[in-house]
Write a structure and sequence with these properties.
With 459 residues, the chain is an all-alpha fold. The chain has a single domain, classed as Up-down Bundle (Amino acid/polyamine transporter I), CATH 1.20.1740.10. A two-stranded antiparallel sheet has the order 1-2. It starts with a helix and ends with a helix.
Length: 459
């Protein structure tokens, strides 16, 4: 398919800002709101942040530049992009499997991501209605258990989230994806800054600041470095087709390198601001900061229920979670929707409905994993032990599909594509290109392999 055909079919971002907002929205999600602050504090604070930023430079940014490069060079869905580029480079046709792997990974991630986003939507309503005012630890836990143990209620929220995701994607690039991120991302940042502002009034802001940024090198271990490497890779939505699909809509006159640095910087800032918003509240109420996902759904609601204006700020917090999940969701479904439009001559509305329904159906398994199928577990020696349907999808995507996707992207761009074509597409300074090319050929693949082997418990 020609570039002109692609533009008439999918459209383009109106400019760099639109792409940065979209790609940042894809990267910013639940992991930024709770996981990054938590793993930072648990692995040496400022010492971990330093290691994480180095990993972003060595893995995240090089691979993201390569994935955007592939998307813009091909100009199509990830599947068709890889098929076309493999032909152009006289490589084996199986390289189109890289596009399929990313698109399928994105779809599987969205199927369970939607269920968790549904929890956040449910908590927005509960928080706004004052359910958590004066709630105890037992009360907050019982509310969470009541929600997750009710498959019909979970299914309703899962359905609603998938519907709003399909609605945005069906409207196309500029009228759907771009309009959504232009509204959601600034609003998300404003809400986050308001919550940080409130955190400064809790009396524990300094404690939260120290928890995140004080460099405690005694807590920094080899495992901490691996955690930083893994999170640097996953936080930028690499290897799941989303960035490649978004790159296909990037105009040729926009610098891939500058844009990637902006996206990585924005993603990291959101994660740090989230920590500055959350942990002062946690410390002010003498709660455990290392609570993982329970921090959002079991611990923080108690704090919001006890503080002044807790209903307002608690509701704002969960709306923030929903928006972060929404901007990620629309990027996860886009690769398969684009492929249907290109290959099956479907309208975006029909393609969005078909892929959305398929994702919704797979998500039913995750809904049931917290109640009816909770005890239906299985094990694969060397990979995972006694996990249910939800945990299987999480392990399959995070530990296998995404690292392999990132590795294959680095190999294809760094070793199989013509250096001349890569240089023409990247169009950056000679020194920067040489540094990036060395990273994508040697350093990034090696580090990704280490992350992959660690994830599957091989090392």
């Amino acid at each position: 398919m020609s570039s002109e055909f692609r533009l008439s079919m999918h459209g383009q971002w109106s400019g760099r800002l639109a792409f940065i907002l979209a790609a940042t929205g894809s990267a910013v999600g639940l992991g930024n709101i709770w996981k990054f602050p938590y793993i930072t504090g648990d692995n040496g604070g400022g010492a971990f942040v330093i290691v994480y930023l180095i990993c972003i430079l060595l893995i995240g940014i090089p691979v993201m530049m390569a994935e955007i490069l592939l998307g813009r060079k091909g100009g199509l869905s990830p599947i068709n992009t890889m098929a076309m580029l493999a032909r152009e480079e006289n490589r084996h046709w199986l390289w189109r499997g890289l596009g399929w792997m990313g698109a399928i990974a994105g779809l599987l991630i969205l199927s369970y991501y939607s269920v968790i986003a549904g929890w956040a939507m449910a908590y927005t309503v509960r928080m706004a209605s004052g359910v958590f005012v004066g709630a105890t630890a037992d009360g907050a836990t019982s509310i969470f258990v009541a929600l997750t143990s009710d498959p019909e209620r979970l299914l309703a929220w899962h359905t609603l989230f998938m519907l709003i995701t399909m609605m945005v994607v069906s409207r196309g690039v500029q009228h759907g994806l771009e309009k959504a991120v232009r509204f959601l991302m600034p609003l998300l940042l404003i809400m986050l800054l308001i919550l940080v502002g409130y955190a400064t009034t809790t009396g524990a802001f300094t404690e939260g600041l120290n928890y995140l940024f004080y460099p405690d090198f005694s807590k920094l271990s080899s495992d901490s470095v691996l955690v930083a490497m893994g999170h640097a890779f996953f936080t930028l939505s690499l290897g799941m087709g989303a960035i490649m699909a978004y790159g296909a809509y990037l105009p040729k006159n926009i610098s891939i390198a500058k844009t990637t640095f902006m996206i990585a910087g924005a993603d990291t800032l959101v994660a740090l601001f989230a920590g500055l918003a959350i942990f002062p509240i946690v410390f002010a109420h003498q709660m455990a900061p290392a609570a993982g996902p329970g921090l959002i759904f079991k611990t923080l609601p108690i704090a919001f229920g006890q503080m002044d204006y807790g209903i307002l700020f608690g509701t704002l917090f969960f709306v923030l979670i929903v928006f972060a999940a929404w901007t990620s969701a629309i990027s996860l479904i886009e690769p398969m929707v684009a492929w249907l439009v290109e290959n099956k001559n479907l309208s975006r509305i029909k393609a969005s409905v078909y892929i959305g329904m398929l994702t919704w159906f797979i998500g039913i398994g995750s809904v049931l994993s917290f109640n009816v199928w909770e005890k239906a577990t299985w094990s694969i020696p060397g990979l995972f032990q006694s996990i249910n349907f939800f945990d299987t999808l999480d392990a399959l995507t995070a530990n296998i599909l995404l690292p392999l996707g990132g590795l294959f992207i680095a190999v294809f761009v760094g070793h199989l594509m013509s250096r001349r074509k890569v240089l023409e597409e990247l169009d950056t300074q000679a020194l920067l290109f040489k540094i990036w090319y060395a990273l994508i050929r040697y350093v990034s693949p090696l580090l990704i392999i280490i992350v992959f082997l660690k994830a599957i418990k091989f090392i």
